[in-house]
Amino acid sequence: MIHKEHSSTIRGYIEGYYGKLFSWDERSAIVQSLASLNLNTYCYAPKEDLQHRFKWREPHTHHWHEAFSDLCKTADNKSVAIVAGIAPGLDFNFSTDSDFDRLHHKSQQYLDSGAKNILLLWDDIDDDFTADLSISEGTAHAQTVNRLSSRLDQAVWTVPRVYAAEIENKNNYLRDFFTELAPQHTVLLCGNAIVASKIQPTDLSQLSHTTPTTESTESLKHQTVVWDNFYANDYCPRRLFIGPWTGREEVNDFLINPTGMPFTDKLILDIAISTHTANNKKSAWIDALQRHGVPDTFLDIAFCFLHPCFGDTVNYSEATPPTLLTTQVTTPAFEDAIEHCLWKWKSPLAREWYPFIMSLKHDLALLRGTLPTDRILKTQTDFLACHLLKDR
């Protein structure tokens, strides 16, 4: 067995979302931002890379590996580690050696091209494990991680299928996974929910079936890194979240999974680091917005973009009542801010935010009942337009 002490703090960015795929120049720009913020990790795990997930058995081209190697060199010069992800869980065959050999070969190629670690992902797959084995799904996943680690002669990072408490822990998946997983490996978890309002060491301990002796992740059997979806919007692409990073004050190791919009993501990284443990989160947040050229008028509409509806929020009745929301958006400053941000703010960041602010303008008119029929038909999907117009 490979023995390795838990490594130093892991903090950075994970390209792990759906619907967007960075260019190599955009990845390099994110690496530059990570270095400027004293963050140390870029994890490559984009769902839209066919060779990462759907066609994981297929090798990347020589041209791809050249570009990946260049990114690794750039990152290494900035003291940022590149972690390469592979997600074989959709159709991995545990009963033969052929798929494991492909997995090992591809992992070795990533390492040879400059990656520091391999991330083996079992996330977002069905819980219909039917392998003709005498072991459980959790055991099979963990054994594959252990076996890959032994073949590569280094520890491996991994994401279990049940990576948040809200996912059904069918057939004691987590118990079997963490019982079998060797202690040298690094595990990525989300906490109580896929998009959690708060993440604490005890949340991670409960997921990993660890009885903590302290309120620190140091008591965990494996180094545990938070895969944080606070700013992710691939599940709600009409929305954008850029508020202060709250509820993570006790989190030490984290990877932020944001939007796939490069200028927005650089701002998000700055916001997260600036507000993480700040005494005055609002002030630190405003300072970060200003550093990235966000106009002061945006603050008048910013409450619409602060944070998602968290999956671990028990009482949804505490959401902002419509009457209060109506009061907030009837001020002239609100409408003026929308118009200013749409038509007078010009920058790469403004261009990324244009669709979200325009949608806000339409939604405000819908709330007031002032969006004409022709505009509803032009701006909404057919299904939503039918719903909105059914009483007209």
**CATH architectural group of the largest domain:** Alpha-Beta Barrel
**Which fold name corresponds to the CATH topology of the largest domain?**
TIM Barrel
Can you identify the CATH class of the largest domain? Alpha Beta
Structural class: alpha/beta
Task: Trace the largest sheet across and list its strands.
Answer: 1-2-3-4-5-6-7-8
Low-confidence stretches: 1-5
Shape: globular
How many strand units? 8
Strand content: 5-15%
Distance between the termini: 69 Å
Total domains, how many? 2
Biggest β-sheet strands, sense, barrel: 8 strands, parallel, barrel
Q: What's the helical proportion of residues? A: 25-40%
Order of helices and strands: EHEHEHEHEHEHEEHHHHHHH
Radius of gyration: 22 Å
Properties at a glance:
single chain, globular, 2 domains, 8 strands, TIM Barrel, 392 residues, eight-stranded parallel β-barrel, disordered N terminus, alpha/beta, 13 helices
Q: What this model shows, in words?
A:
This protein is of the alpha/beta class and 392 residues long. Helix content is 40%, strand content 9%. It has an 8-stranded parallel barrel with strand order 1-2-3-4-5-6-7-8. Helix 1 runs parallel beside helix 7, helix 3 crosses helix 4 and helix 10 runs antiparallel to helix 11 (348-368).
